[in-house]
Amino acid sequence: MICVYVLDDETPALHALGSASRWWLHGALSELRNTLNRHHGTLLTLKGSAEKLIPQLAKDTGAEGVYWHHRLHQKEREQDERIASTLNKQGTPSDAFWGTVLLDPTLVQTKEGRFYQVFTAFWKAFQKQDVPEPLDPPAHLSFSPLPDDLLSKYRLDEATLLPAHPDWASGLRATWEPGEKEAHEHLEDFLRHDCVRYGKGRDEMGREGTSRLSPYLASGAISPRQVWEAIQKKGVHDEGASIFLSEIGWREFAKYTLFHQPRLPDVSLGQKFGKMAWRTSEKDLIAWQQGRTGVPVVDAGMRQLWKTGWMHNRARMIVGSFLTKHLLIDWRQGEAWFRDTLVDADWASNAMNWQWVAGTGIDASPFFRIFNPTRQGVKFDPDGDYIRQWVPELKKLSGKDLFEPWNAKEDELERAGVRLGRTYPRPIVDLKDGRDRAMGAFRSL
Ligand SMILES: Cc1cc2nc3c(=O)[nH]c(=O)nc-3n(C[C@H](O)[C@H](O)[C@H](O)COP(=O)(O)OP(=O)(O)OC[C@H]3O[C@@H](n4cnc5c(N)ncnc54)[C@H](O)[C@@H]3O)c2cc1C
């Protein structure tokens, strides 16, 4: 056996991996290599066109077969078909398996043989299917020597996956350890401690009430079937477990939607949004990216993302709503920023959730449901812990002032050492004006 990973940045139709995902990939590859080393093998990592390298590798090594996991997007599938066809022509059989999802996305269909567009209906139909059990790792592995020629020409210099100057990854290193062992530890820890009150805990931004499995799932360090099986064993009768399972269901639905709707990452699926008059404002976009909008809960989320490569789900919804509604900036700008900065960046989940938040998707939160960031903060970060952690310059403010410093009395600001416009920005948009502008744009569609 030869285990190979190909980083293909050369095929233009495929979205390139973002910077945080590359950082994560570095750790994931070295961890996988360590595991294979313990079985007296190794991992071959190559860089270049997969369409060229995989058949070449098969030829050079006289491979009897080539195997991989199915990918989901039409462009990825077309590429996989081209690779299979080249292999076939040179006499090498190949096969692919569903590993990144629970089920083959063609299996869940409406009575009319169409694909579901609404999560609740999808999830109901999905749960009638049997999810195959995850396979145990093989007991014995037998490795072939690696081909020198390919190695010298196309070896991936894994160090290039890491940031050089400036080294922006210190917060990521302090927060995460990529790898299979850590993935299982996260799952066990979650099942032991947080699962039971996940229904409520998943919305509390100031504490760790969720599994933090997303980057492990996104990189394949743990498979959704392993997660599914662990939950089944725990018993889905527990309310927390069943809500958690439905979140795994949302992940599945995103991949299913990407499979059936390849336009998902690029086009607003709700047709009328094709004509939406999105604003272009480099200044507002940068303020949002840097967590300097002057709206504390939004800034807290954006700074958590920048520092750790991850953001709480509730905060993702708040910052997404703020960008697409209060700032009226196209959801694709938000999607692109998340894709570059999230360690769990996932083509399907990211695009589907952005379309959900922006209200442009098919099964999405309606556009006119515009989150009020202050109310969201008060509700889901009632003690202000999340804001104080990520926006420490406001930490001495108390009560509502922490959520709306622009409404605080001068002496309260002074006592807390806050000087608006100096130590912390004034809001870049008046919340009411931003809301009205968004509603105006929506009504004119
Ligand atoms: C604007 C926006 C962008 C997002 N982009 C991504 C992304 O690129 N990659 C990504 O994995 N998730 C994305 N999400 C979904 C969600 O925020 C994260 O999956 C979740 O916060 C990860 O933390 P966790 O592992 O602790 O989740 P938990 O609450 O513990 O959930 C367990 C798992 O279920 C899945 N899951 C949970 N919520 C969702 C959801 N809404 N949609 C799809 N899957 C879900 C994830 O795989 C997650 O690891 C996005 C959400 C929003 C609102």
UniProtKB/TrEMBL annotation:
PROSITE patterns: DNA_PHOTOLYASES_1_1, PHR_CRY_ALPHA_BETA. SUPFAM superfamilies: Cryptochrome/photolyase FAD-binding domain (SSF48173), Cryptochrome/photolyase, N-terminal domain (SSF52425). Its cofactor is FAD; (6R)-5,10-methylene-5,6,7,8-tetrahydrofolate. The keyword Cell inner membrane does not apply. The keyword Transcription regulation does not apply. Gene3D superfamilies: 1.25.40.80, DNA Cyclobutane Dipyrimidine Photolyase, subunit A, domain 3 (1.10.579.10), HUPs (3.40.50.620). This is Deoxyribodipyrimidine photolyase. It comes from Gluconobacter frateurii NRIC 0228.
